[in-house]
Design brief:
two-stranded antiparallel sheet; 7-stranded mixed β-sheet; alpha+beta; single chain; 6 helices; 203 residues; Glutaredoxin
């Protein structure tokens, strides 16, 4: 019986105690919890804002910079290149057993259903003459037929001209067989025509 009535007894004692003023003992201090906002502001003040800005700027810049180390063209040259792929063994469909592709060497462009209709302009934007040449090509490209691929330098130097500008990759360098810059590539039938330009300052 006592166990069952214990909660009632405790509540009555607490209630009666709350009605009695026992006064104040010792020193008093104001207690105030810090708000979540004040904690955020405190942490924010601890951040080195200049360092954060510098790190963000460096990361953003690094995203647009390329380092392929493609050499400068030393002469004007036009050459053909036929990209190919080697299939070492017959490719057999697992269910039917039919041969999808026999082993051998295949012309990549011959296998494509849609030809590469644009011009691929490989350029080093760190080179003043190459950059100026790219800008002139961009200005004269009224039908947006040129895709600019930056081999070295900052791709942002060609932004703002409503053109397709990308970072060149090792895969693209290999696919288009780029040996120097600036080079302009266009597809002709089942091979690429690659034009390499030697740029010089006028005397």
């Amino acid at each position: 019986m006592f166990i069952k009535s214990l909660p009632l007894l405790l509540s009555s004692v607490l209630f009666s105690s709350s009605l009695v003023d026992y006064g104040t003992r010792g020193d008093t201090y104001e207690i105030q919890d810090r708000s979540f906002i004040s904690l955020i502001k405190e942490r924010g003040n601890d951040i080195n804002k200049s360092k954060l800005h510098s790190m963000t700027k460096e990361a953003t810049t690094e995203m647009t910079i390329v380092h392929m180390s493609i050499p400068r063209c030393q002469k004007n040259n036009t050459r053909e290149y036929t990209p190919s792929v080697v299939v070492p063994n017959d490719i057999i469909l697992p269910l039917s057993g039919d041969i999808l592709k026999k082993k051998g060497t295949y012309n990549v462009l011959g296998e494509l259903k849609t030809p590469f209709a644009q011009y691929a302009f490989f350029v080093n934007t760190n080179d003043y003459l190459q950059l100026e040449m790219a800008k002139q090509y961009a200005a004269s490209d009224k039908n947006n037929q040129i895709v600019f691929l930056v081999t070295d330098g900052d791709v942002k130097k060609l932004y703002g001209r409503d053109k397709e500008v990308y970072k060149a990759t090792k895969e693209l360098i290999d696919i288009f067989n780029i040996k120097c810059s600036p080079s302009v590539v266009v597809q002709s039938d089942e091979h690429f025509i690659i034009k390499e330009y030697e740029l010089k300052y006028r005397n």
